[in-house]
Amino acid sequence: MQLHRFGGYIQTIYLAEYDHGLLLLDGCSRADVGTVLRFIRDKLRRPITDLKLVVVTHMHPDHAGAAGRLKALTGCQIASGEAERHWYSGLDGRLMHLTDVALAQYVATRLKRRRRNIWYPAKLHPDVVLSDGQPLPGFEEWQTVTTHGHTDRDISLHHLPSRRIYVADLMVKVKGRYVPPFPIFHPNRYRESLAKVRELEPHSVILAHGGEVRLTDKEYDHLATLAPRKPKTHWRAVKARFQRALLPGAGH
After folding, report:
1. What residues form the membrane-spanning segments (predicted)?
2. What's the CA gap between 54 and 241, in Å, rounded?
């Protein structure tokens, strides 16, 4: 297995190459469709139909945005974690979808990326639903690890032979330090997920935002210390901002 790493629109793309096919570790953003296909065709010199499986670790724009289009163009399957309902269900979900797309565009602007179309469907219809401990179909040396907290359906992918684990947004690297992501909808589950990954004692941890790293005990402890005790979400952030505007001194 060769794990290829290359730059995406606002995140790093990881593509596992085997003789029998290609595995995309996450669903990227809508703007990354051409980037992925060109890499397969021009760098690997393989037909795009060799892409067999795209995993969607969670439903945010830079992790789910390209999945549907890649399936349409290559015939690949889409896999994602178990969840009771669509992430962006209902009116609140639709508003959150709009907000997440806007936040992704904001990140792209901060990274000085040219403005691109990153709109994608709010509902995912996976071919394969993955449970904790389940091997990836066709790529059985990769094992699913549920790592909820950022959302209610996050999964990580553990490559058993090399003891490397792709954790998507379980943590992000900011100014040289590892910090929890925003948002965190389920803080208790988030701390449990951190502990689960730590207990696996991986040789390295692969981040969507921060590359492949080896975390020390001190860095795991730092992450656990920063992990919130209450949900940190879009709506709570907006509410707190309104409170500060209407009630000067609130929260101080």
Report:
1. none
2. 38
Q: Is 213 exposed, middle or buried (0-12, 13-18, 19+ CB in 10 A)?
A: middle
Distance CA 228, CA 166 (A): 22
> What gap in Å lies between CA 180 and CA 37, rounded to an integer?
31
Q: Determine the Cα–Cα distance for residues 197 and 128; give it in Å rounded to an integer.
A: 23
3-state secondary structure of 194: helix
Are 231 and 185 a contacting pair, CB within 8 Å? yes
- Say what angle helices 187-200 and 217-226 make with each other, to 10 degrees: 170
Which residues pair with residue 23 across a beta bridge? 16, 53
Structure tokens belonging to residue 21: 């096919």
d(CA 74, CA 97): 26
Task: Report the distance separating Cα 239 and Cα 21, nearest Å.
Answer: 47
Helix (H, G, I), strand (E, B) or coil at 168: strand
Between the CA of residue 60 and those of 29, 98, 128, 206, what are the distances in Å?
9, 11, 18, 18
- Output the CA–CA distances (angstroms, integers) from residue 59 to 48, 75, 206, in the order listed: 24, 20, 19
The model's pLDDT over 96-121, given as tens digits with 9 standing for 90+, comes to 999 999 999 999 999 999 999 999 99
Structure tokens at 97: 């979808």
Q: Residues 176-220: pLDDT tens digits?
A: 899 999 999 999 999 999 999 999 999 999 999 999 999 999 999
Neighbours of 38 (CB within 10 A): 12
What are the structural domains, with CATH classification, of the chain? Answer: 2-226 (3.60.15.10)
